[in-house]
Amino acid sequence: xxxxxxxxxxxxxxxxxxTGTLIGRLPNATAALAIVLFTRSQGGSxxxxxxxxxxxxxxTAIGQPLLGRAVDLYGQPRVMFPAAVASGLxxxxxxxxxxxxxxxxxxxxxxxxxxxxxxxxxxxxxxxxVLRRPDQVHTAYALDAVAQEVMFSIGPxxxxxxxxxxxxxxxxxxxxxxxxxxxLSVVVSQPSRAWRSAPREAHWLGALRSPGMLVLIGSxxxxxxxxxxxxxxxxxxxxxxxxxxxxxxxxxxxGVGALVGGVCYGAxxxxxxxxxxxxxLVAALALGYLPLAIVPGVVAMxxxxxxxxxxxxPALACAFVVVDRHAPRGTVTEAFSxxxxxxxxxxxxxxxxAGPAVEVGGVVAGFAVPGAAGLAALLxxxxxxxxxxxxxxxxxxxxxxxxxxxxxxxxxxxxxFRAGHQA
Length: 423
Description:
Blueprint: H1 2-10, H2 14-24, H3 26-41, H4 46-74, H5 77-97, H6 102-114, H7 119-131, H8 134-165, H9 168-187, H10 190-194, H11 211-240, H12 246-266, H13 274-289, H14 298-309, H15 312-326, H16 332-383, H17 385-390
């Protein structure tokens, strides 16, 4: 198992790009916690902290696909590093001004959110040119999903340690300075500087003009919704089953399950069509969420949470491959950014939906939300399987490793658009 990952990381530029991207995304991974802690330290309420975090999240959801399209048009260095600096300066403004005047704090959140660089989509656009072999690209997608679980576990711990050592403002400044350095490490690398998106047909919808992309976005909105609901339901469960660290046990088990599943999934090459495999993985994911509504004791519930997480990273890794096959030519970074954005929006909706569910029906109803969302994600893929089957790249389109190929290899003719124009 470790051999495939070791070979991948020994490939020139691979370890640097993966590490730089993860470091560059630290501000985004820790923003919610850092904003809440800083707002509370300034005397703000939890409601205000939640509002500021929501503004940052909405800004990120808007900015990611827009910046992803800009990357496809103008290249990674010209977009990603300026965006990282601007986002960092937004957080600096927040740390310096604080909550007075409040409009300045909201403006800082808007700047920091919208300017968050699309490093995640950018990395997936680089993998085919860096690794060349399709099996290694698929392994890289799985490793990427696993690394995210590690980052989202370590990031909040870093914020907590920085707050304990210095202050909440220092945590904001240090984390965002580290993020800018991570983005810089990526954009000065040879693959990032050399990468160019394929010529694209002019269309204001960009990546969204692909029916297959719309199906993926619809499905993974519900996967994100399930995860957001689990976070809220876990807190409600902890209130009834001992409080304290119980919710963290469940969420940690969910992350460990995803970590194990992602490592195992990426350790081998999978035969067959990825669209069919994605349906199976999402089906397994949905089945893993359903038993959570049983709400047994803490030990059994922790085990169920771990099982529920096993298929998350594999489903994400397979989804990246499917995006790779369905994104219109010249929209690779934008396409990945749309998937990331939709996943995040779904998580926010799930957080909002689980609260009322718990109020009305208790913990069981709270955990029924992710089960229902998982089934909805599966139904989207099943109901639209014909769309995914018919929207795949042509047989004569270049594959990963071919000269000049990029991550989005959909070479299908798109009637109504004239070649030679940029979107």
